[in-house]
Each structure stands twice: as structure tokens, then as C-alpha cells.
């Protein structure tokens, strides 16, 4: 018996040792896994926000999902449920909720600066009240755990969490609440800093020193999207692994020690997993950021009590074998939540009852040293921006009036003769008599001496630092001298660098009339209510750019640059024009037509200056892009090409073709620059194909990213169409390069046929993507659909230019059947688009002249030529002749819009008459029919079938015919055709007039 007793004791001792080792091992695993859990949650939250912002997800959603989101708690809960220990999950949820209030929130209040006054804003009070309501609803449900109750209530809690996110996001977007601040961790990740920098809007005219530091810092930290996606996946895997290991270790510890899962979850697991919140609370309280305290506490508890607890209830349906939380824990949870809400509300009540004495009643009650608080000059109270603008404009007008009335010999003489009216006009005009000259930073690429010199200097600095050599020369002094010599190479080019020595261009600036301040303020107010369609266009979709231009012209006393003034009047011209078409209430309050004329004059004066055409800067690029749009609308392709050449030159000199350039600017500014560049790119490729000339911007030098797609519903579809427009322009550039360039003319028939097949496939794929665009959620979806129809016209026009180069069979007589089908569809799309401009539901929104501006002038009528050739080649094909007549009828309706439209109508109507005359002549005489067929056969034999297209047509009708047709400015051909119609019409009898 003694031996047996000794052996049993030994076995017991060994078992205790084994049990102790297991406990120590699991505790070590538990503690080490906490670090992995926090690391994974940190990376997952941070890089989820970065990826979301890069992909265009709104900041409100990012803030709600990252501020107070207990993702690590959710992982622990799911892992506990997966291992069949729901009691551990429930204990962790309740304990974490209590720890957030009594631990994190209380620590934040305790570590606040001594003598500081705590003030909770309205958003904090609303958040805390929402938490109290949720806690009051959840506490009885947790205690009465029954299958049906938990299953139904769990689903309700998950649904309430979704409703909570949507309602809070809506309230933040409306401005009723402030967005939650911070996140649930104390990360200081560099990319998070970059994220905040990029997401913070700033005025264009902000401090250059601050902007420079911000741009350099942002560019230094910015990583690729793939880098952040990789870290996001890594964080997710780390969180999943840590949650599983942590819950498994916790289960082992509870089993070994013999305590309940609920107790372990409330006391140990909850405190351990909420340590980051406590660190953030201490830092926030010490820095006085009480908003972060409330946001983290409320956000975390809402996440726990709605989403996490809802998942537990749905999964377990009230079946908790290891026990549930008791009344004391639930009472502590509800009481602490009530105390949080009362503290926020009591702060508001104390502020209302404060007697404003010294010391004040609040400080006397709290036994604090009262400090008289004076308003800070550098942090003014938040006010309405429009009200500030109105006050500032009034102040500037008063100052100008005072200056004008002061004794001035020159002005006194002029005022005595012109009277009060001209005096007021002179005050307005004098605002723009002196423009500031922009000092743009010019881009120099890797092959430039400047860039290579800077690289060589960096290499020499690294070599000196690494070698530690001793020289009789002062290497540091020489290096500094070299750096000083290289600085002028990096400095922005001055305005005189774009002028000859004897030039006096900069001394003569155009005079521009200021618009009434009341009109500008009214327009800015209207922008807040209803954004114009023009401010959702390809060139500009950010109203803040227009607001900034107006502020720089009216709000500040600093001199205005010519590019800024020209850009402001250009945008104002289109905005006011849209208000007139839409019959906006502003049209009844102001004489908008007169102000539109003023904007048009000012814009034209600015565009036609040497400074706008020769000096590269963003404002000049933007104003030139507006000028190109206006020139196209007026049917002036040669003027458009002139402005396009200057704009493309500016883009190359500023480095807009390279993506690296945009990383040097604040995110909003970079997006504005990017949109301006791609708008110019689209026009460049389109005009290149229309004019038959090489484009100014070559694809070999362009690596800029596509513009960001706006998350706003009014602009999202327009931005998607913008990107499709860029892809279409790239195809147009390839069409010219592979089929119509000088290199293409010397390519073999096999190479040309391969290019035709590849380009036609790309066009068809692009057209499928165009049909997938959804505009049903847009406010102005009818206008958007009308715009898509104009792209149909451009699609078939470009497809015809591709297929006209296709190799044909003997039966096809020089033009393939696919080309004829594309041309026929092109003319039919013209007719459909024109009828849509006549029948659109919004009266006055578009007109027949707009069809000429937005459709006809921006596409080629080469389908008309193809159908004409096919009609005169096929016997008795009056169907194509009727199609030509319908197109001529459309051109006749718009012939009065511009000289280009009138000329195009004359050319096409004569073609249609010629086709009808030839076909009717064939029908009347078999001999005439045979003779015409022989003539056409001789024509196709003279010119290569594989090369049939525009070149043979030029040889038959004149060398300049097609070029003038595509330009819509067929001056020489019109006179030739006019003489032909005068001299030769009598030879063709029976031709309808």
C-alpha cells in the first residue's frame, strides 16, 4: 500500500507538472498571438482604407468601417464559434464592451491635460445616445436566451448594424453629424499619413511652402495599389490565423484552470484584445481630442453589440452549453453606457448654465483653476463659405470705391468726361488691367542634361559618403557648390524665357470686364443646390476648381493671372449658357444673355494672347482646352488645331504625359490636371484622324493613369464614358498610324489586312463596352443617352475608315460589303441622333444647332462617300440614294448654323444629285449603263484594289477633296463644285432640284 501510494503521488506530481507546462505554453501562445492579432488588424484596416480610397469608395464609408471597427474581436468571436465555445465569444463581447467604457474612455478622461475643459460636440452626444438605445435593447435579449428569441433578434441586430452604417453615413454626408475620427488602433503607418494628406482638400492658392512639403511627403510615401492589396491580404490572413490560435489557447487555459468560458472572456480575453483602444484613448485624452474618445468607444461597442453579438445569436440560437453572462455583468454594461451618455449630455447642460463669470460656475463646481479663454486668431469659427464670400466681395468693392474717389489727376480727368456709368465700368475693368504672370515649372525628362546632372550629383554624394576617403580638397564645399549650380536648372522658367529680348508682349494685357458680384455669388450658391451638367463633363467634374477660380478673382486682393481669369470666364460662359437653356430661376433674376456675351468676350481676349499660347501652366492648359471645345462647336477645325497644338505643347513641357508628374501634386490638383490632359488627348486623336495629320501627343510618351471615377451618382457614368472616350481615342490613333500614315502607305497588303482585322475587332469590343454603361441612376440620364448616340456616330465613322482599307473581292468592286454596311449604319445613326435632338423631352436643352456642334463637327462624313460610291456602282440601287437624300435633308436643316455646315450641305447635296442622275440615266438607257460600268471598271483597274479608299477618290474628284470634307471647311472644293454644277447641270436631264 505504501508503494502504491508513493507511485500515485509521483504520478500526480508528474501530472501537475505536465498540466503546469501546458498552461504556461498556452499562456505564452495567448500573449504572443495578441501581437499577431493586432498586427493583422492594423494592416487590414489601414490598407483596406487605402485600397478603398484608391478605387473611389467614399470617405464616409471608409471612416465608418475603420473608426471603432473591432475587426480583431469579430475574428475571435468567429473562431470561438467554429470551435464550439459560444460562451467564450459572448463573454469576450460583453467584457470588451465594458472595458471600452470603464477602461479606454475613463483612461482618456484621466489623462487629459490638467485644467482643460471637456466639451463634447453634438455628434458625440448623438453617438452616445444611439449606443444607450442599442444597449437597452440588447441586455434583456442576452439574459433570456431562447432559440426563437436569439434567432430572430440576432437577424434583427445584424440588420440594425447595416441600417446604422447607412443612417450615420447619410447624416454625415448631409452635414448633420461629424465623421468619426481616428481608428481602432494606434498605428503610425506611413501610408496612413499619406492617406490623410491626400484626402484633405486644400485650396489651390494655399501656402506654397506647406503644399511643397505635402507634395514631397506624399510622393515619397506613395506605393502602388498592388503593394497595398498584398498587405491587405497579409493582414487578413494574420487576423484569421491569430483568431483561431487565440481562441484555441483560451479554451485550453480555461479547461486547464477550470474556470468558465464566460469569466475568462470577460476578464482576460476582453482586456487583452482591447489594449489598443486603451492606448489610443490615453493619447487622445492627453491631446484633448475628446471626439476620438467618443468615436472609438461608441463605434467599438456598436460593432460588438450589433454585428458580433448578432452573429453569435444566429449561430447558436440560444444553445449555450457552457453558460451565459449573469445579471451583474449586464447591469455593469448598461450602467456604464448610461454613464457615458449622461457625461456627454451633462457637458452640454454645464455649458448652457455657465454664468460666464471669472471664475465661472463650472470651474467653481469642479474646483478647477479658471482660465479666461480668448478666441484664437488662427482658428476662426466655422462659417458659411458663401456668406464669407459675400462679405469679402462687399469689402473689396468698398475699398475700390474709396480708391476711385481719391484725388487722381488721370482718373479725375477721365471721370469728368465719362460720367458715373463709365466710372463704375472703369472700376470693374481696372480689376483686370494688370495680370500676374505665371512662373510654371517645366518638365525635363531623363535624356536632358538637367536630369542627368542631378542624378550624377546624387551618385557622387553617395560615393563620398560610402568611401570615407581623405582628400586635400574640401569635398563638402565642392559638393555644395555643385548643388548651388544645379539649382537654376530645377527652378521654374520665367515669363521672359518665352519672349524675345525686345518683346513688349507682357506689357499689354487684354482688358476684361468683371461680372456683377451678385451674379457670381448667386451662381456659386446655385452650384450647391444643383450641379450643372457641364461640371460633370470630361474636362471638369470638380466644382471646387470653379469656386477657387471665382475666389481668386473676387475674394482675394492678390493679382490674378491671365490664365486664371480666362479659365474662370470660360467655365462661367458654359455654366450661364446651360442655365439659360434649362430656364433656371437665375435667368429671370439676371440678364444672363448679356453676361454670357461678356464672358465670351473676356474668354476670347484671353485665349488670343501670346501668353496663353506660349507660356505653359495648368490654367493656360485648361483655358486652351475650353477654347478647343468652343472652336469645335463653332465649326472651326483650323482654330481648334491651333489651340490644340499649343495645349499639347504645354502638356509635354509640364510633363502631363508622365504619371510621375502627378505624384508631385496634391491629389485633387493632380486629378484636375489629369482630366485636362486626357481631354486634350481625346481631341488630338480625333482631329488627327479627321484632318489626316499625325497627332501631337504620341502614345509612346504617354504613361499617365486614367482619371479617377467619381463615386457620386451624377458624375460616375460620365467618368466611365470619359475612360471609354480615352480608349476610343487610342484606337483612332492606331487607325491613323497603321492605315493612313506615311509608314502605312508603304506597308504590304498582308500587313494592312492584318491591321484592318485587329482594329475592327478592337472597335467592336469597345462598342460592346459602350452599351454596358448604365445611366438609370443619373439625374440627367436623357442627356447622357443622347451623348451616347453621338458616340454611335463616331464609332461607325471610324469603323468605316478602317474597313475602307480592307481587301476586296472581284465582286465587291473596290469596297467591301462590311464597309458598306458600316457606312450605311453610320448614316442611319446620324438620322437617329438628329431626330433625338428634335424630340428630347427637355425643351430648349438641345437644338438642331447643337447637333452640328456636338456631332457633325466632331465626326467625319466618310460614310456618305462610301454610300455614294456604292450607289453609282450597283444597278438600280435607289435605296442608298434615298439614304443619301435623307442625310442631305438633315444637312439642309442645319446649313445656316455655320459656314462649314453650309459648305458641307452644298458638297453632299451635289453628290446625291449626281448619284441619282447616274442611276436614272442607267435605267433609261442600256447603252449608258454599259458605258458607266466600263468606266468604273477602268477606274478600279487603274488604282490598286487593296489600296482603294480615300486615295483613288482623291484622284477621281480632286486631290484636296477628302481633306476638305473631313475638315468641314471645303472652300476650294466648294468653288470648284459650284462651277461644275453651273456648267454641267444642263448635260444631265431630269435631275431633281
Automatic annotation (TrEMBL):
The chain crosses the membrane at residues 22-39, 88-112, 124-143, 149-172, 229-251, 257-276, 288-314. The keyword Cell division does not apply. Residues 182-193 have a biased composition (Acidic residues). It is found in: Membrane. Coiled coil: none annotated. PROSITE patterns: ZN2_CY6_FUNGAL_1, ZN2_CY6_FUNGAL_2. It comes from the Eukaryota. It is a multi-pass membrane protein. Its main location: membrane. SMART domains: Fungal_trans, GAL4. The keyword Coiled coil does not apply. CDD domains: fungal_TF_MHR, GAL4. GO terms for cellular component: membrane. One of its GO terms (molecular function) is DNA binding. Keywords: Membrane, Metal-binding, Nucleus, Transmembrane, Transmembrane helix. Residues 181-211, 403-425 are annotated as: Disordered. One of its GO terms (biological process) is DNA-templated transcription. Residues 343-372 form the Zn(2)-C6 fungal-type domain. Belongs to the Ca(2+):cation antiporter (CaCA) (TC 2.A.19) family. This is Zn(2)-C6 fungal-type domain-containing protein. It comes from Fusarium oxysporum f. sp. lycopersici (strain 4287 / CBS 123668 / FGSC 9935 / NRRL 34936).
